[in-house]
């Protein structure tokens, strides 16, 4: 039977752009170009490698987001994923991590899956909790933050490098996996891949398709509330000296003045 | 007074500093009740009592080491049900965030991650967070259920506040899901003898300019002269010059020390995201146009192979 892989991806504002908050304190997505979160490219890459090793596999990329989020799906399709699902609904605006995990979990169940692969975190929210939330909601093993992953005979294995130890993990499918940026560089879409992606199916689902009530998600339904967002004041300009042979000593003098020595 | 659950991060009974910081924050909201799990759990009690824990709930079982995350979620949920706290605070480690997230789903609560400060508020605890590579500061609260909040290291001072710290055994029955992900092998990381990167008062980092694994000894020597932790930029880590566990930046650690010294680091957004909340920032870089100089309190435009050893020598001389 075919190995059904669902890769969750997020469309995020470009980190090199001037990211800011909209008036309702959600992430402003209008003024900054968006793209597939870089950390999700690693998830797509590992899915492709696992699919290559399997006799028969199908990769579905799944995103929750506004109209433009299709760009993220197209990128993943051009890298080699087979099909895509876009969950889009006006009532989703302002949904937080708990709400997003509800939508993703319902969509994953509706799509059917043996293996879910996510990135380690998004590059905008950066919390990194969605994979654990998905495992909890789906009631399947969580095999997260892997820098190495493989699937064989219905078992997923991987290496999780923590601060105090490196662990080898093992779980039976179905399971939720997340991979780090140490898992292996993501491939660039080839010209052929980009052309092929244009013909690959992208399904659109809304909240009704997933049997989710509008008040369970969105800004009003959010489990957390942002009261204020303040731009951090620019750091005041410091002293910059050119090293003329005494740079190290001058720096030591500064550090001593600040009581660090 | 309301009780606040504090999840304890410890190594065989030695409580790690971020947990003591959590106790400082917990005392702003209520009476801290600590939850310590695994080998050495009971040994955490004296340190926790000294810093304000009125109770220490403990439980040890092989499952905590043998299976990933879920046994700890089961135990924290048991503690939650036993105490009915006003909030649950967890250290913002990779594992801490996963435990907190799963607990939030189970108890029907919202979650805030990576808080850098916490105050009591009329509608529950108000958490401060950094957003968009620390270019914004937000204040948020949990709107549904009992607030579950993870807090980053260095978010509060460790304060002595002696309390009873009475040890109580926590009754835990593991769920069917607890044994879903087996830990088949564990290789402890060798200690470098240097402070933990996220907890250190001073961090000395090297980047592309260090130009080779063998040259990182220059960075390490400077760090050792200051009793500092060693960090590395993504460029240096990707090149294989220094371990990923030392990476500072968006996909590595985010640090907020009293002093951050960047050597041979240009200061790309990916790096700035992990260090720009540092109190004092110092940089050494050949390129006067490097963006890191926009952040610094003091910068030296020069060759790090000249400047850093001279700085190290001068520090050693001054320290006698």
From TrEMBL, chain A:
CDD domains the record matches: ETF_beta
Organism domain of life: Bacteria
Provenance organism: Streptomyces olivochromogenes
Record field: transmembrane: none
InterPro entries the record matches: ETF_a/b_N, ETF_b, ETF_beta_N, Rossmann-like_a/b/a_fold
Keywords assigned by UniProt, alphabetized: Electron transport, Transport
Name of this protein: Electron transfer flavoprotein subunit beta
Homology family: Belongs to the ETF beta-subunit/FixA family.
Gene Ontology MF, one: electron transfer activity
Transport as UniProt keyword: yes
UniProt function note: The electron transfer flavoprotein serves as a specific electron acceptor for other dehydrogenases. It transfers the electrons to the main respiratory chain via ETF-ubiquinone oxidoreductase (ETF dehydrogenase).
Residue stretches making up the Electron transfer flavoprotein alpha/beta-subunit N-terminal domain: 24-214
Entry annotated with the keyword Nucleotidyltransferase: no
GO CC field: cytosol
Cofactor: FAD; AMP
Record note on quaternary structure: Heterodimer of an alpha and a beta subunit.
Lineage: Bacteria, Bacillati, Actinomycetota, Actinomycetes, Kitasatosporales
Residue runs in coiled coils: none
Gene3D superfamilies: HUPs (3.40.50.620)
